Amino acid sequence: MIAVVTGGGSTDDGRPSKGRRFLFRIASVVFALILATVVAELALRIFTNALLGEKRTTVFYDRYNTTPRGMYFYDLQTGMNFMWPSAEMTAYSHGYFWTHRTDARGFRNPPERQGTDILLLGDSLIYGHGLDDDETVTSILHKDYGYSAYNMARQGDCLYQQYVLTRLFLDEFTPQTILLFVFSNDLVDLGKIRGPGQVHLAPEIDLHNYAAIRGKIKQKGANKPRIPFYRRLIIPRLLVALGRSKKADTKKKASAGEQEKKVLGLRQKGFLPQPGEPVTREHARRLLSIPKMRRRITGNWLTLDDKPLSETEQYYRRILLDLKRRCDKRQTRLVVVNLALNQEGYWRKNSGEWGARFAEKSSVEISKEARDYVSDFVLDVRVRSVAQVGVMTARVVADVQVEYLDLSQEFHSIDNYLPNDGHLSLEGHRRLAERLNRLLSSNP
Fold first, then answer.
1. What is the pTM of this model?
2. Spatial separation of the C-alpha atoms in residues 280 and 369, rounded to whole Å
3. Are 422 and 348 in contact (CB under 8 A)?
4. Which residue in 101, 102, 205, 296 could disulfide with 88, CB within 3.0 to 4.6 Å?
């Protein structure tokens, strides 16, 4: 019997036609692919760090940048980054996820927090790196101690950005108290964002048109570019990242010859031992005398020489003197808080990674004595850097007669810091809030 296809796409015995069965298979495959993609996307979002590892997770969730997925936009006139207002995103660093949420002004405060009696200006420690907003010192001051505290801190800020932000919003906020925090890397950060001429002249005091800057930032902030839906997905970005990784591996292999030439040159100069011999303590000392290698190992931790330190000190004196004058005019209490923390206990616990980093950068076997030397070297640089910031700040605030609170020696306990990160933990923020409460409840 010959099967006759009816208008519904099936034969006269009720079975689907070949064409319909083919379309059904196609639809099934497409549905399975969509379902698998959705499941994979959800799995990558829920178990990102476990599935991708810390390095790739950082690529996807690093928000400290001005890319479309970042938390900042750049202002050319001030040379500063500003956080997008009314933004919300998931951020990640060193194994920690947190929700980054800003208010209509572009600061990390919940929208309902309007009080600005106490302004906190600082860097990532005060911003609350690695923690959700309700775990930060600002929120703890608000909910546990009843202060109308407002968080104006951002990652990487130093005295220059703090001054500009104060000038932009001082009249709008009319605070009772400004807490201006100083950190261990502030001197280095200032040198990155302000050249020697700018440090010397400090044009931000008299030459910046802050009304125009405020209007420009407000206009820019209201026009945050939209990110297409498909660019929010992890899977397409992962495929792109894998392609770039293969290209990077190819490039790395191509540059292997250059690396061998560098190692050979260092051996000829006595910085590295002969093949088969480990790097000794003396080799490590010689290698760390090379500025480029020293910067790679110590990062942003360094002490300033006499001339740049003197110029930086003059800048601090001029900025703080101007801030004091403006605060006195408004009867606002200005307090400089030294949070260049001596984390020696935490640093010692994690010092082994510095020797491991040294071994990776030098591409040769490292003896235990050499690793210990590198760890002690980096620890010494950090301790001296913290001390230099503290000594200079104390001298300046005494000269300009600004109220000063030195907390640099009050956070020795390891539980004050996030493991494998170094920023303040929830416990550290609680202790800082308790210490600030004692300051704020006292008479100036």
1. 0.86
2. 7
3. no
4. 101
